[in-house]
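Q: Protein A?
A:
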Amino acid sequence: MSDSDGKKTLGLRGGARPGNVKQSFSHGRTKNVVVETKRKRVVVPKPGAGKAGAGGSPVGDPSKRPAGITDAEMDRRLRAVQAAKARESEEAAAREAEEKARAEDRERRRAEQEEKEREEKEREEALKAKAEEEAAKVREAAAAAEAAAAAPSEPAVARTPNNKAAPAQAPRKTERDREETNKKNRGNDNRRSGKLTVNQALTGGEGGRQRSMAAMKRKQERARQKAMGGSVEREKVVRDVQLPEAIVVSELANRMAERVGEVVKALMNNGMMVTQNETIDADTAELIIEEFGHKVVRVSDSDVEDVIKEVIDDPKDLVGRPPVITIMGHVDHGKTSLLDAIRNAKVVAGEAGGITQHIGAYQVTTENGAVLSFLDTPGHAAFTSMRSRGAQVTDIVVLVVAADDAVMPQTIEAINHAKAAKVPMIVAINKIDKPAANPDKVRTDLLQHEVIVEKLSGDVQDVEVSATTGQGLDQLLEAIALQAEILELKANPDRAAVGAVIEAQLDVGRGPVATVLIQNGTLRQGDIFVVGEQYGKVRALINDQGERVKEAGPSVPVEVLGLNGTPEAGDVLNVTSTEAQAREIASYREKAAKDKRAAAGAATTLEQLMANAKADEDVSELPILVKADVQGSAEAIVQAMEKIGNDEVRVRVLHSGVGAITETDVGLAEASGAPIMGFNVRANASARNTANQKGVEIRYYSVIYDLVDDVKAAASGLLSNEIKENFIGYATIKEVFKVTGVGKVAGCLVTEGVARRSAGVRLLRDNVVIHEGTLKTLKRFKDEVPEVQSGQECGMAFENYDDIRPDDVIEIFEREEVTRTLS
């Protein structure tokens, strides 16, 4: 650049040049901005500039070299450039070789895939050609058959209305051709027709439900078999089907291993419109079984019990078990007191009148560690059948005889039961501490009944004991242990449980409850069992201490919960594998029992009926209804009632049952004009109201003597003054308090009538009597009062009884003597 004088001035070639740029802002505003633009300097080497260094000379032209660079530095830079170029060329060669190998591998796999597909296609074409050839043969055979069947004359030629021969029509497609055409039109629904991608597998093809690979393979196999000239059907399995007199449709299908829908369809084709839950007879079921190609094995109804037949155990599986000892003897000879002394418990206080009303089952562990299972049977004559059941399940009988009373009638019965059961006997001469005790007289009296004790050179052990002082208890336990050792009692705990029902009752809170003595095997929680005409699943097991246990082995008494009904005392419990078996066995037993009762009622000739009717004219009947707390008590009462009467009068038990008195019982009593005898049970509120309205008499008893004597006196007409109970009030326990020096005090609300200090009281729990006695105290706030009216609160304490709980009901009554008359 030069000025006007022609002198050069300092400047830049190609310096900044002005330019305009349009800048945009928000809301559509724009602005022109003047900017400077600069050119990038481009250095173009002159020809021959790099020749000096090309030959490897580090010197070159110093004038061309950048300033400050030495010859050594220049040489090092040139070598680095050459090494980088060599490395790049080697990497490029390696990449090229790798790419070439990959291409060859892809080509090889593609060729293998094409070869495989070509082989598959050739195989399918061969199968298809063979199938077409077979189809052609079939069509030719069919055409030949039609030609042979046609008349020998030439077939008529179809003509048009102009009497001209119409062109020959194409042959009609067979069903097989139409199926093949439809398959071609639908497309090949084969999962091998192409590669299955992950997307197809996840989305199910075109969005519909995709069939499984197993289903596709089955379809391919069917298509292959069809293409080869026919389908190979699955081999039919012929089964032996056990057929009872009646069977449910679903069970029939299960035994044949056929689909329920197919069996129902076959029944409908035979004119029976049934569902899978309906029952069909054996003849119809036999037709269906034969239609499906199976064999019929007719079985009787009793064969259902074959699953619980006794199994003979392997001697290697047997282990020692505790002995089961039954305490027998006359009433009030001290059987339960003796067992109390062994158990260190107080059971007699819980029984009404100090008399055992039920069979008690307990386990006792001696000081030597031996476990003994005791059954305490009642001694009264009314409980003969209960003692009989006790003897049937026992191993050793301990015959208790009072030293001051000697042999009595029930003692003789106990001896007979022990002999009938063929079990060893041990004589315990009790009450040896009394002044009037004479054990030698007891031993002498036993001789009359062929019971010879060891002291008289016999083989029956005898021990002198006292339940009060504890004298001789150790010797008694030693005698029991010795007798058990001689018996060598063993059982198999690893098999299905078998047990005997000692007692059964209907508990309001827990449902049917059975006291079972396990005789063999182990009963576990969750086992399915059948007992008599009832069945169930073990919901809970409770031992003699009131504790829940998971299992019970041989010789262990437990309460079993989970029955569908109350069994009979004496029934045998058997564990089954399935609930269906248990239900079937229980149903058969129930039906057999009904048939037996019906047959017993029908097995009477016309002459017998007329004779009975004539005899009934002279015999007066006293009908009664009996409700008891447990099955054994109800059975004992019924047997006692059957023995009451003579030629002029007799007692007829219309109905006996277990549990609280209900409206149904009141209705039956009203229709027959019978009183209701409640033994340790009470009527619920609705039943009480109904009985008051309809004038039905309900009598409550807690001692069997009183009930038997009452009925006997009423039936015989020897009516003396009786003690009648008048219920004057009811109270409900709200809270229980513990007071020092007094014991437990019940905070009560009088709900009906009045509570009197002088009246008798009973404690009811779930309408069952658990205590009867007198009041120790009756307080209103802090004051002792003679009576408390309905709707008021008060405090009550029982004499010698502390087992009170909230929601228990207290029944207040007064006794009075009235003169009885026969209605």
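Q: Protein B?
A:
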Amino acid sequence: MTRRRRLREEAPYLALLALMLAVGLYLRIKNNDYGLPFVFYADEGSHFTNRAVEMFGGDPNPGYFQNPSAFTYLVHLALRLYFGHGIPFGDYDHVIELYGTNPTRIYEVGRVTAALLCALGVVGVYAVAARLWDRRTGLVAAAILCFSFLAVAYSRIAVTDTGTLLPVALALFCAIRLQERRTWRWAVGAGVAAGVAIGFKYTAGLVLLAPLIAVAWPLLERRDVATLKRAAAHLGAVVGPTVVAFAITTPYFFLDFSTAQRQLRAQADMAGGLSKYGQEHENGFLYYGDSLTWGLGWLALIAAIAGVVLLWRRHRARAVLLAVFPLVLFVYLALQQRYFGRWLLPAYPALALLGGYAVVQAVAAIPRLPRRLAPVALAVATIAVVWQGLAADTRSMAVLGHTDTRAAAREWLVENERPSLRIMIEPAVPNRWFWRYTKAGRPMARTRQFVRALMRDIKVTRIEYGRTLRPEVIDTYREHGFCLVLTMSLIRGRSVNARNPDALAYYERLERESDRVFHVSPFRADAGPQEFSFDLSYNYYSPAYERPGPEIDIYRLRNCTQEYGTLEVGAGSSLAGAGLQ
């Protein structure tokens, strides 16, 4: 078949893929300025975009290795192209200045970068499925990934996870080709793709299991010297390019290895040994299993499982190579002490491929289905499989178009209270939230609208705020004139989940000895409050949400004299080191 004829036959499928990408990008980019200039998602605010901006100062070392650097460098390049009007060279001091005054456009660029990386992953899944099976399977698999809620939710945040989707899909494809054809180029391709995937997310390195199994597969048939030598050579062809590709994406992992080693050890100790406050009573296997029911969708998950079964019966090697990565990643993450749904996102290309295969095979198995109706049946089946995610994508997009509750609370405080207000604000807002702004919207240097007084540490040294709460700290608030207390469901919910008696007693006393002067809820009037979740309370999957943000209450303590200005904490004070300033 000539290339021109092949392109002519594939044109309708490419047109449908382009339409799918256009809808997917709209769902991701529409309202992606939500929350800005405040960045309420902690990882987005402290790990990637800010470090990409710092590189304009001349140092390409991000100094941060708890996540790899590929996404940071891509955001830096995107900022160069955007602010350089397509020319990536020049003086960019104004970008650093803009980040300090109003970083809205900078974070929008980072968020668009994440969305485009996800779109590339969708294209990659289509290409892989089309070449492993056919173009119909490619479209169905691409639709599953494109509209899966988890993939959409983290395409709206400037974080690294969506960058794994394309290289994981390619690594799986190369592994399958390596097992089937046993040629050098597929070993090298698998290694390069795996190395790039690791450059976005360390845990994506588990995708190496697929090419390693492909390398070892011939040994199941024979174990002579020639087979062993070829397997060893293919192993080197996988591992070597993996290291090189990772070094290109994260060069300072090796150039600043002591820092990288120290940070990774701390990250591993935290994720594997210290449970997240409010997550102590959860089970990792149940958590990630549940995340798949909303992140991928019930029908898509069932289709993926069915895909493994069907492939096992018809092509055992492909079933193993596609299933091993998501299964091992699932088990590894479930055995940690901290759980977040997005950590499983690198497995989604494999699940989409398996789901797409199952859907196409199920439609093909319909008895006496007229040939002309087969495309209609496949379209209906695909819509049914992706509908749960598509509906949630659309709902959450609309939610993000409304004012965040934290911004609404800030506006109320600015309108009703004097500057330099002493107020206890729970730690679910960034430092920029406390700044004082001019009428033009520019922050006033070294001037705060609110005195930042987070009671993170009274007598114990713990990094998690809720563990320090107890009823008697309210007396400390009164003593130093912090008569207003702002609580958020994102923080209070952790104490409820943790069943912390001291923290719960603190909130009970606060309500008993205060008047509530302000309340804002993110939920619709006809919907009740939602239980706190480290995923669902941040991504707005639930139909109950009307606007982004937590439920917020502001209380005014009775028998308390409100004071203003910076609090001077003496060395002998009971508040020394308490985080009051």
